[in-house]
Design goal:
Blueprint (H helix, E strand, L loop, with lengths): L4 H11 L25 H10 L2 H5 L18 H19 L3 H10 L8 H11 L8 H12 L13 H8 L21 H25 L4 H7 L1 H14 L5 H31 L4 H5 L13 H16 L2 H23 L6 H10 L1 H10 L3 H12 L6
Helix pairs in contact: 2-5, 4-5, 4-9, 4-12, 5-9, 6-15, 9-12, 9-14, 10-11, 11-12, 15-17, 15-18, 16-17
Length: 386
């Protein structure tokens, strides 16, 4: 039997929680688009993201370590896949729309420039007088304007709910949303799941990458972070003290991430039941987020994040990479703004529409780490342009 889109929509209506967002209830797309016979609207959005150029470029964009530092550290793409895995797991247990959570997880970092948060910080400074730069807003520009996959309209023509959730991605909802998406409304529960899955994923893999790189040790974590001390004690009790160091590290990190996921599931279920929400709109109108950690776990996570900030993100090796990255972004911006004829032909045309600074910002934000470094080298050694 062939499953039709209507069958999938009926399954969502029957099986998902009343406060889950159903694909049949989408507010639709900006540009008219005929429904697919076999996929729901959110499944179509997911597939459009996966096939987007900006998604593929995440493979060569920094998470913490610049892409050329090593083959085993997380990139934006591997981080994104881990967020999607955590998000689907949480959504499944809470009976939310897994497909919507997945597309939000896959799209949440499309606006990140090369070199991670260092690149974003530098572009924000450079664009301060030209409308600013923030990666969530840039992600919306990517899916609305910069991707080119249809002759009839720019962008990917995603559903309203996905576009809104991309803009409202920050874990602590700010009031910078555009009038199109409505001020004062919380993100959908599926968007809140994607947000907290992002936090769970980066805490998890930053522990792993930090240990793998030797920037800190498991003993350092045990001494300062009680979440990890609890995990190491549990692993030793279960497996003994003779585990290979790599296996020991993996089991400890698995314990920590499972602890975070189980906590957010229990706490979110409690908040939803106490709020008594019976629809996605009621969840959006709540004064606080319904997806979150318990009050007992939040300060413990804070200790972990403080440790990672001091021992990992502020480590001199990471700081050196950041300073080099900022210098590359700054120089590329300076040269292209002063000489827009050096831009690729499409971005030269885009500059006439958007203004030179915004077009240069879009161009740089779309670069991978290695492409940005290559452009920097070419501009520093002009003979290499030939």
């Amino acid at each position: 039997m062939i499953i039709q889109r209507e069958d999938l929509e009926a399954r969502e209506a029957r099986d998902l929680a009343p406060y889950a967002m159903k694909s049949a209830d989408t507010r639709g797309r900006v540009h008219e688009d005929r429904p697919d016979p076999h996929r729901t609207e959110y499944q179509r959005d997911r597939d459009r993201i996966v096939h987007a150029s900006a998604f593929r470029r995440l493979e060569y964009k920094t998470q913490v370590f610049v892409n050329d530092v090593g083959d085993h550290y997380r990139t934006r793409l591997t981080h994104t896949m881990e967020v999607a895995q955590v998000g689907r797991s949480v959504a499944r247990v809470l009976n939310l729309n897994e497909d919507l959570v997945e597309v939000l997880a896959l799209s949440h970092d499309l606006g990140h420039p090369p070199f991670g948060h260092s690149g974003e910080a530098e572009l924000a400074v450079l664009m301060e007088d030209f409308g600013g730069f923030e990666h969530n807003r840039q992600a919306l520009r990517v899916v609305d304007q910069l991707e080119k996959r249809n002759p009839a309209f720019p962008g990917l023509n995603l559903t309203y709910e996905v576009r809104e959730s991309i803009l409202k991605h920050p874990t602590s909802y700010d009031e910078k949303s555009t009038r199109e998406f409505g001020r004062g409304l919380r993100p959908l529960l599926e968007a809140q799941v994607a947000d907290i899955s992002d936090a769970i994923a980066y805490n998890h893999h930053d522990i792993d990458d930090g240990l793998s790189s030797g920037l800190f040790t498991i003993e350092d974590l045990e001494a300062d972070v009680d979440l990890v001390a609890e995990a190491t004690a549990s692993v030793r009790e279960r497996y003994g003290t003779d585990l290979h160091p790599k296996i020991f590290r993996i089991r400890v990190i698995k314990y920590v991430i499972n602890n975070l996921i189980h906590d957010v599931v229990r706490e979110s279920d409690r908040r939803i039941r106490e709020a008594g929400v019976e629809s996605p709109q009621e969840a959006r109108e709540c004064t606080t987020r319904l997806i979150g950690f318990t009050s007992e776990l939040r300060p413990r996570i804070g200790k972990l994040e403080k440790f990672l900030y001091q021992k990992f993100y502020r480590h001199y090796r990471v700081q050196r990479m950041r300073e080099r990255a900022k210098r590359i972004i700054r120089e590329l911006f300076r040269v292209f703004v002063a000489n827009p004829e050096l831009l690729t032909p499409w971005y030269q045309e885009w500059a006439e529409v958007q203004g030179v600074e915004r077009a240069v910002c879009d161009y740089i934000a779309g670069m991978t780490d290695r492409y940005a470094q290559g452009e920097f080298t070419k501009l520093s050694h002009p003979l290499e342009r030939i």
